[in-house]
Design a protein that fits this description.
Distance between the termini: 29 Å
CATH topology of the largest domain: OB fold (Dihydrolipoamide Acetyltransferase, E2P)
Order of helices and strands: HEEEEEHHEEEEHEEH
Strand content: 35-45%
Shape: elongated
CATH class of the largest domain: Mainly Beta
CATH architecture of the largest domain: Beta Barrel
Oligomer: single chain
Number of helices: 5
Length: about 240
């Protein structure tokens, strides 16, 4: 796979130095011939909740252990496996340390590429402020998103794929307010919030509970679906490129 493909497929990316083969640094993971331990020298794409991991020993379940030797430096593309008193990950692939700069640059581009993807798939992009928020309706479904509605006062339409024009002044969208995963990490909106809203059809997002929303309902579910007003020029440029 190319570096962009590897970056897309791995959530735990780091440069490190191989310490041992066949050994585990995590109590829950027994020693095995397909394991290597590596000192993490630089976090390239690692969940911030894990803190500063520099110098920590990472146990990696690798595809071809014979390709590693103690002292070897490499960039590891992996996904999480065990987190606790130690960290173990499963390798997707690895590249020579000489490509570290290319990998770092590609990871730095991820937010831009993600924003571009959200804009390309949006049904409506507006500069607006939240005029009103309605509380969600009660439900006995413990997995429900608890959808709230927000009414936007539209200041400028930046992109519209809608067939009608009644969104030019006001528009209503839905957002989840449940405290359980996966909804508890979604943004909550309040009256007075002002910025760029990237809204997508609930049906297109294919999320649990979308079928309980009205036909044509718009939602804002991704962290990239709201930006401060100062982002208008940047978003406008991306929209121009997309067109």
């Amino acid at each position: 796979m190319s570096i962009p493909q590897l970056v897309q497929s791995a959530r735990f990316i780091f440069s490190g130095t191989v310490l041992e083969r066949g050994k585990s640094g995590v109590a829950q993971v027994p020693n095995s011939k397909n394991l290597v331990t590596a000192r993490l020298d630089r976090s390239i794409r690692v969940d911030p909740v894990l803190g500063d991991l520099r110098g920590r020993t990472i146990t990696v379940a690798v595809n071809s252990p014979e390709r590693f030797s103690p002292g070897q430096r490499a960039v590891f593309f992996a996904n999480s496996w065990v987190h606790g008193r130690g960290i173990a990950v499963r390798e997707v692939d690895h590249v020579d340390i000489g490509q570290e700069g290319d990998v770092t640059a590609e990871v730095a581009e991820l937010p831009h590429k993600h924003l571009r993807s959200r804009l390309a798939g949006a049904d409506l992009v507006v500069l607006a402020d939240v005029a009103k928020v309605d509380e969600p309706k009660p439900t006995f479904d413990r997995h429900a998103a608890l959808w709230s509605t927000a009414e936007l006062r539209v200041l400028k339409v930046l992109r519209s794929e809608l067939r009608h024009e009644d969104h030019t002044q006001t528009v209503v969208f839905y957002f989840p307010t449940a405290d359980c995963p996966p909804w508890n990490t979604k943004r909550r909106f309040r009256p007075g919030d002002r910025g760029i809203f990237i809204l997508t059809s609930a049906r297109r997002e294919k999320v649990y509970g979308a079928d309980t929303l009205p036909e044509g309902a718009l939602v804002a579910l991704d962290p990239a679906d709201f930006h401060e007003e100062s982002y208008e020029a940047r978003i406008g440029q991306i929209l121009t490129e997309i067109r």
